[in-house]
Amino acid sequence: MTLQTYRRRLGSCSSRPPASIVGPVSDGWAILSALAATVGALVAVASAVAAWVSSVRAKKDRVRAEQAKAESLALTRQFVAAAESQAESQRIMASRVEGAVPRVSRWSEARNVKGRLYSVRNLGDHEVQVLSVSTVPAEASELLTVRTPVPGPVPPGGELRFFALARWGLSIQSITVSWSVEDEIPQETVISID
Questions:
Q1: Burial environment of residue 70 by CB neighbours within 10 A (0 to 12, 13 to 18, 19 or more)
Q2: Rounded to whole angstroms, what are the CA distances from 44 to 40, 58, 170, 192?
């Protein structure tokens, strides 16, 4: 075999595919690229729809939370009024049973002193013994810091001071002061914090 013959045979076995095969392969890649782009666009549209649905649900949840807060505040005010009425009735009944003249001690509304510091004043004409101070709702008890020693006395015109802190989603709506005058039956007064 001569060198020229060898080169001719080698040239006919080149690594290049025939032109008839190259056309359909490159068309296949174009189709796959178009398909991938379409799938990507569909995923983007689906993500946008999911984000929109999520935002609509968040708005509805916020409205429901605001309605629940308003209802809770209204119920707390009703509870405070009922508790004050009940305490007054118990005080009157206790004084009738014992035949004693009732000693009237009242507490002022909560007054904001500065920042989250509040005070309530003993409006009665007798020294009262503050037995305990609790919160409504009870879950907010860790947000209450009483500055006046409890248990302890509060003279007429004296103040009971406390810090009513708040955190996201939880705040003190009112406090319940348990107190007594000398050896009388302990009473409770619910004081709203606005």
A1: exposed
A2: 6, 21, 39, 52
Q: What is the pLDDT of residues 110-164, one digit of tens each?
A: 999 998 899 999 988 889 999 999 988 888 888 888 998 888 999 999 999 999 8
Tokens of 2: 């001569």
Place of tokens 């989603």: 169
The pLDDT tens digits of the residues spanning 63-96 come to 888 888 888 888 888 888 778 878 777 776 666 5
Report field, pTM of the whole predicted structure over 0.85 = no
All domains of the chain in start order, with CATH: 65-192 (2.60.40)
Answer positive or negative: Cα dihedral of 51, 52, 57, 61: positive
- Please list, residue by residue across 155-174, b when 16 or more beta carbons sit within 10 angstroms of its beta carbon and e when fewer do: eeeebbebebeeeeeeebbb
Residue 132: φ, ψ to 5° = -165, 160
